[in-house]
Request: fold
Amino acid sequence: MTDNEEIKKNLDILLKKYELKIDFINEIFYLIIDKKDLINIIKLLKEDKKILLNQLSDITAVDYINQNKRFKLVYIFLSHKINFRLILTINLEDGETAPSICEVFESANWYERECYDLFGIIFENHPDLRRIMTDYNFQGHPLRKDFPLTGHTEVRYDNLEKKVVYEPVKLPQEYRNFDYSSPWEGLNKDINKDDEK
Reply:
């Protein structure tokens, strides 16, 4: 039995009561779970002696704007002792909260704050859920698919007022006449005649 088959067998035994499908793609194990089981499953994966997922590498999200379960929260774990990765995901509707896993992995604190700031996902029982990457006055969540590319406000330093000023975004654009000739087609033949003289 290979190491990966052994790990799969151990995962099946450990998570038997949850009736999960465990996929193995490109040397990584994948689990899709229900959010109500998130903390219990992560504790099991961290504490079990045959699995030992002792490092939380990242928490991120994906926005599927046209689906009922709009957000997919992605948790990436690594086992140093057994040398394997596991990606665990839960699906959330827009406005649905997720349980914080800070009590299991302290490193989740900043990852969850980042997901809150950039996607607007709220984590229940998080010890300090506030923005981490955008400004305090920032409106919206910039990694949502419905967030405008230009944002809502722009920030600049005003020399007259001697302070930072927030203003609504204005993008006036004058009509431009584009020359569609390709620079790769060579120079004009008349120019080349001058070079020969």
